[in-house]
Structure formats: C-alpha cells, structure tokens
Amino acid sequence: MDIVAHALWTFVIVYMLSKFRYVSKYFNTNKKVLAAVIAGFGIDLLFAPQFIYIYTNIAVNGKNFHELAIEFPSWFYTWYYINHNYFFIALIGVFLYFKYKEYLVPIIFGLFLHITSDIFTHKNVFQLKPFWPLQQETFQGLVSWGNPVFFKWSWALLVISIAIVFFHMQYDKRIKRSYD
Ligand SMILES: [Zn+2]
Question: How far is the CA of 114 from the centre of ligand 1 (A)?
Fold first, then answer.
C-alpha cells in the first residue's frame, strides 16, 4: 500500500480495537494510538534509499522504471528484506520490552499490520520475504497495491471507514458531554 493508506488503515483499525474491552488498554491514550500509526507507516521511511535511487535514475538519468527494475542492485533488495520481515519486528519488540514497555503492543501491532498487508499487496520486484533470513524465496502477493482497480476500491473503502470513525468520534464526544 502507499504510505498514506498505511497510516490511515492503521488508525482505523486501532480506533476500532480501542473500543473492545480486552484490547482497549493498549490503545487508550492518544500517544499509544499515535505510536501505532507511526509504526504502521514509518517502516516504509526505511525505503528512502531505494526511493532516492529510483527517483534519481528516472529524473536525472532519464531511465524508465521497467528498465531499472530489471537491474536493481543487490543492496536494494537486501535492505528491503532486512526491514520488511517478522523477525525485524520481533527484534524491535525485544527493545521495546526493556525500554518502553507501554508502547510495546501499539508499536508491534502497527508494524505487524504493515508487514502483513504488504505480503498480500506486493507483487513482482517488490515481493516480500516475510520470514527473512530463514526464508529465501519471495512471496508473490495476491494483487499489487498499485493495480488501478485495487487502488481505487481500497481507497474508496478507506474513505468510508474514515468517515465512520469520524462520525463515531463525534457521537462519543456528545455522549461524554451529556454526562458532564
Ligand atoms: Zn512496506
């Protein structure tokens, strides 16, 4: 998915979870929700080196994406596999456990959501190895997030979901006010 969709979907799902009794405690403050959302899109900021590589080759060297994609350098893939897998998440989890325990669940959840949705929406050159380094073959996604039909419908669904969340928030506020 694109980075904005990652952020918004994470927010929608985390908002819904915050209404469920047993998991609400993990998302009961704005900071925890924010941590989950930042984790949900932030992992793609690690794609910056590849993005710069693609951008400069297209804008400066006048290549087109398909030419480029045939000969991405090996670091391009290595760096991608290193930060887009479940073991990387587990490693961050260990760090959070010892350092910032209250953000452990929100952040891990945001990262987990990101990798899991990427597995199914990344095809061809951006296929994932979600269990790297144990896994050597890539996983072919079901549909590319850039597929025009998928892109249109998933964004339509996202906009509807955001609207529902927004109205629910207004409703929540009104309920709270009536108790004051
Ligand atoms: Zn990603």
Answer: 6
pLDDT, tens digit (0-9, with 9 covering 90-100), for 74-83: 999 999 999 9
pLDDT of residue 1: 84
- Angstrom distance (rounded) from CA 136 to CA 127: 12
Q: Which residue has the tokens 């309920």?
A: 175
Q: How many residues does the chain have?
A: 180
pLDDT one-digit tens code per residue, 28-65:
999 999 999 999 999 999 999 999 999 999 998 888 88
Q: Is 128 helix (H, G, I), strand (E, B) or coil?
A: strand
How far is ligand 1, taken at its centre, from the CA of residue 176, in Å?
Answer: 37
Give the distance (Å) from ligand 1 centre to CA of residue 83: 9
Q: How far is CA 88 from CA 65, 85, 120, 146, in A?
A: 28, 6, 18, 25
Q: How far is the CA of 163 from the centre of ligand 1 (A)?
A: 25
Instruction: Tell me the CA distances in angstroms from 89 to 95, 117, 154, one per residue in order.
Output: 10, 14, 25
pLDDT bracket for residue 169 (50, 70, 90): very high
